[in-house]
Amino acid sequence: MCEICFIWFHIKCQNIIVDLYNALSDSSIAIHWYCDRCNRVASGFVASITAWTRRQDAVEITMKQVEESVAAIDAKNLQSNVQMSTLSADSKQTQNTVDGLTSDIKKLSRIRQNRKEKNQRYCEGT
Fold first, then answer.
1. pTM surpassing 0.90?
2. Do 23 and 55 belong together in one domain?
3. Alpha-carbon Rg of the chain, whole angstroms?
């Protein structure tokens, strides 16, 4: 009996030799048999499934490569974020230093101006 269409065929009609029939009839051996019509269809299915399996394997390999690339990019982004944070902190520290120096320069400039005015008054009074 064909395992796909479940139609019983006479062994002579399917050109099955007696030894093959006996092997197919032996329940301890797992041999599958399909009639000629179903065998052609099954062969096409097997070929399609094999092709799909190969394509699926290729897709899985590509996906793994993409995942590895994304992980590498994520690691670089994390490293860049750490560097940006460090640069930002350095920039704030530098800005604070510049602000402090600017304030000091203004103070020194006022002191210098005050001394200059005092010297002029002193010179005018003598």
1. no
2. no
3. 45
